[in-house]
Write a structure and sequence with these properties.
The complex is a heterodimer of chains A (268) and B (265). Chain A is mainly alpha-helical and 268 residues long. Helices cover 76% and strands 0% of the residues of chain A. Chain A folds into two domains: 37 residues, no CATH class; 212 residues, MetI-like fold (Orthogonal Bundle). Chain A contains ten helices and no strands. Chain A starts with 18 loop residues before the first helix and ends in a 7-residue tail after the last helix. In chain B, the strands form two sheets. Chain B has a six-stranded mixed sheet with strand order 6-7-8-3-9-10, sandwiched between helices. In chain B, strands 2-1-4-5 form a four-stranded antiparallel sheet, with helices on one face. The chains are: A mainly alpha (268), B alpha/beta (265). Chains A and B meet through α7 and α8 of A and β6 and α2 of B. Bound molecules: adenosine-5'-triphosphate (ATP) and magnesium ion (MG). The site of adenosine-5'-triphosphate has 13 residues of chain B, from β1, β2 and α1.
């Protein structure tokens, strides 16, 4: 590769970046967008009903925080996503591994999963309400429908990308099938599986909020719907920010954990 | 001649897939003696890897017989160590743990595995890199770990499929010297596939040349160069003559493959 001087390397194909530089750029973008937002509202270019000012949004969030409402809404949503995502993951992992490892099982399960995957999750909302009411179970179900089928296919692909020679290595060592699976295939696919889970967690958030918007009596999504009724645009903006922050935080946490867990993949 | 270590008789392999049938091997006959180093060369796609996979027990032949120590090969086994062209080091294990992994799989205790692994890291000149992960090793180092791993559990035979194919010329030379060095000290039956005629002549006791697909053994060239082999030998007239002989046998095949049969006249 050509040697890039100074900051040019940040915008060269395959260029490298230091952690501080990455953080600096990311924070700067947020700061610029925040400033733009502030300037637009301060100049009175848009009516506050459509775009409230950052100050308005923050003070609304402050109020909701002080009253405990925000924390309660976050708590219930986080509870739902955690459980819903775990249920989905715990079932998707073994199935994805199974159909990624054995072509017979792939033929039996993959087309069906693919078939369901293309059904819009939102269309399941009325059905799930009919089946389980509007309680937490329905939220778990929607998260499940929205993430499970995607996870199965992602994990299947991760397992299938394990090099054939890795499996052959196990064979030449006379390892039994299950030990090849446990000792070679799984550890080999694990970093990619971790990434798949991280990506599917993002989708799970979306489906949770969708479920809460449509039918719920608590949670972040529910609060957004009620705010709409009272034209509380500042609350809607505030909660969107909270959702963004929660998503960003979980994603970064999983990325960080992944780097810790799979440190061996990095050249020191 | 004593009973061969590996004996291949009238071996054939036909691949049948959705895209049609490919006859990869037809009527392959080859004997490899105990402690003999045989190089196998041939044009690309002539069936070298297929033959090695069948010997490794990873593929089954469509016809003919293949035996190791007189017993039919029915599957992979610890009596044959395989070194793949891709390094196949498990990335989550350190260099030494990769060797231990094979030793543990072959039934050694962990203490035994640790000590044998350390010895083999020294054998391939990787002392000091025991705790390095594969991502931190160069291609040549990775392949040295793979060789250490394949040797460590004492297979009767080593099957190597273009193990140095991905290495640069200089590293390749080092690896060839390392391999002859180890082989001359430890003696082991080796089937070594390569594209590189010089490599085959330098390493082998005999070089087997295959025809184009469907692959057969076209010619076997005994390499009567003295051992220990030295790199300086490559310049000797004897080496050059042998190189020429193998090269001629392959060249006619590769020209035929390219549709230049007339050019041979
Ligand atoms: N699993 C398979 N299914 C179908 N055809 C195959 C399969 N494996 C190999 N072949 C075909 O058999 C022939 C011989 O392949 P093989 O890999 O043994 O060649 P090779 O001599 O090792 O070539 P190279 O020097 O390029 O590695 C090729 O035509 C290849 O396409
Ligand atoms: Mg090959």
């Amino acid at each position: 590769m050509r040697k890039q001087k100074g900051l040019a390397r940040l915008f060269a194909l395959g260029g490298r970046i230091r952690a501080v530089e990455f953080l600096g750029i990311a924070v700067a973008v947020f700061a610029v967008l925040g400033l733009l937002w502030f300037a637009t509202t301060a100049a009175g270019l848009v009516r506050p009903l459509f775009l409230p000012s950052p100050g308005q949004v923050l003070s609304r969030l402050g109020e909701l925080w002080a009253s405990g409402q925000l924390l309660a809404d976050m708590g219930i949503s986080i509870y739902r996503i955690t459980l819903g995502f775990l249920i989905s993951t715990v079932i998707a992992l073994p199935i994805g591994i199974l159909i990624g490892s054995y072509r017979g099982w792939e033929a039996a399960i993959e087309p069906f999963v693919d078939f369901i995957r293309y059904m819009p999750v939102v269309a399941f909302v009325p059905l799930t309400i009919l089946w389980t009411g509007t309680g937490d179970a329905q939220k778990f179900l929607i998260i499940f429908i929205g993430t499970f089928f995607q996870q199965v296919l992602l994990v299947m692909d991760n397992v299938k990308s394990v090099p054939r020679d890795f499996i052959n290595l196990g064979r030449t060592l006379e390892m039994p099938e299950w030990r090849i699976l446990k000792g070679i295939v799984l550890p080999s696919a694990l970093p990619a599986i971790w990434d798949s889970l991280r990506i599917s967690l993002g989708w799970a958030w979306t489906w949770l909020v969708v479920a809460e918007l449509v039918a719920a009596t608590s949670g972040l999504g529910y609060r957004i719907t009620t705010a709409q009724r009272f034209f509380q645009t500042d609350l809607i903006f505030g909660y969107l920010l909270i959702l963004g922050i929660l998503g960003l935080a979980t994603d970064q946490a999983m990325k960080y954990l992944g780097r810790r867990l799979f440190r061996y993949l990095e050249v020191r | 001649m004593a009973e061969p270590k590996l004996s291949v008789r009238n071996l054939g392999k036909t691949f049948i897939s959705d895209r049609g049938t490919t006859v990869a091997l037809e009527g392959v006959d080859l004997d490899i003696g105990d402690n003999e180093f045989v190089g196998l060369v041939g044009t690309s796609g002539c069936g070298k890897s297929t033959l090695l996979s069948i010997a490794a027990g990873l593929e089954t032949q469509s016809e003919g017989e293949i035996r190791i120590d007189g017993a039919d090969i029915t599957g992979p086994g610890l009596d044959r160590g395989v070194v793949f062209q891709s390094y196949t080091l498990l990335p989550w294990l350190t260099a030494e743990q990769n060797v231990e992994f094979a030793l543990r799989a072959s039934g050694r205790s962990s203490a035994e595995a640790a000590s044998i692994a350390r010895d083999h890291m020294r054998l391939v000149g990787l002392t000091g890199f025991e705790k390095a992960y594969p991502a931190e090793l160069s291609g040549g180092m990775k392949q040295r770990v793979a060789i250490a791993r394949a040797l460590s559990y004492r297979p009767k035979m080593l099957l190597m499929d273009e193990p140095f194919g991905a290495l640069d010329a200089l590293t390749r030379h080092h690896m060839q010297e390392l391999l002859t060095g180890i082989w001359e000290q430890h003696r082991l039956t080796v089937l070594f596939i390569t594209h590189d005629v010089e490599e085959a002549v330098y390493l082998s006791d005999r070089v087997a040349v295959m025809t184009n697909r469907p692959g057969r053994i076209k010619k076997i060239v005994p390499i009567d160069l003295p051992r220990p082999r030295r790199y300086t030998m490559a310049a000797s007239p004897e080496f050059q003559a042998l190189h020429r002989e193998v090269m001629d046998a392959i060249r006619s095949e590769s020209l035929a493959a390219a549709g230049f049969a007339e050019a041979l006249e």
